[in-house]
Amino acid sequence: MKRKKFTDVFFKHLVTVMALFSVLALGAILLFVFAQGTMPFFTSTADGIRLVAQRIDEITVNGTFYKDHNTFIYIPKNADYISISFPSGDTEETLNITINNNEKDPQKKLIFSHNSEVDITYPEAYVYTVSWTAAISALQKRIHVIIPEPPYNFWSFLSGLEWRPSKDKVFGIFPMIAGTLLASLGAVLLGVPIALLCALFMAEFLKDKAASIVRAGVELLAGIPSVVYGFFGLMVIVPFVRNAFNIPSGNTLLSAIIVLALMILPTVITIAETSIRAVPLSVREASLSLGASKMQTAWRVVLPHANSGVIAGVILGISRAVGETMAVILVAGNSPQLTLNPLASVRTLTSTIAMEMGYASGRHSEMLFSIGVTLFSIILILNSFILWFRRRMEQEL
User: The pTM is what?
Assistant: First the structure.
């Protein structure tokens, strides 16, 4: 008896510790993502100007000597002048930079003066490159001057129509939000009715032996990796869309909708069928005793009684459609453009994160975290709306 009591207490505390650890881990992950995702809208990328010397072994910046320096050289935040010198052959090169801290335009913020011929380029926002001439371009000595980027405007982030992280540092995600919602909504409109009809047929009209075989097949489809669905879409659906509509490329919004609809079918079918089978037999018998046909009973009595589980399946289907990545990358075309044309290429939020996180840095990387926070918020809003709608239906019933 004492041993049994000890075992019960041990497992009780073990489960409590594991549950607490899981909650803390999930909270830490969400806190980290939200902190990274909101940082670009409240802080600058750095406290002051940073310098990067390329192919320069010895350099003096504002009186401080650096040798073989391969990281950032930080300039104080309120500095208004930068003096740079380094040996180059028999001469000493000098570069003086005047900083106008009151100027908001990064292209007008710095004024350069130098003692020899240099090439000053401004290839992207907030980064100047000063190059000294050499016989071979690969041997040119360069100094990159990186200006801190100010906090990004939140409204410009959500409503912006252009995404140019490498040029001008423009981060507008509205076309990607639209692409995500259009692809997910289209998949739900196409896939959910088919899934509900399949679940109703398996639960109410198919014999148990045949239903078990079909159920096993559906569960097998649910375990197929998303990249396999994407490869199937790339090899079958994309050519079909291209040939059917006579367009140059089949990587379109329509292809993404079809693939996502196929992907959410197993999830919605499995959960909906389980909920339909859980409806008490007395409900069916009461409907049939009043003269309703089997179809009327299944459609107007059994299905409304199973609406809680059906809506839960729809929520999971929507979440999978909104959060899908690999399959959409393969079939959607990945063009960040705002369009309602189903035969046009689109890009989703998840595709942007997956394709650019590997090489993103600085503000670009922070903005990808912001896309993740936006995606989480969209899923939360959609699920909250569906749960509210379910409660309204339950009150009416």
Answer: 0.85
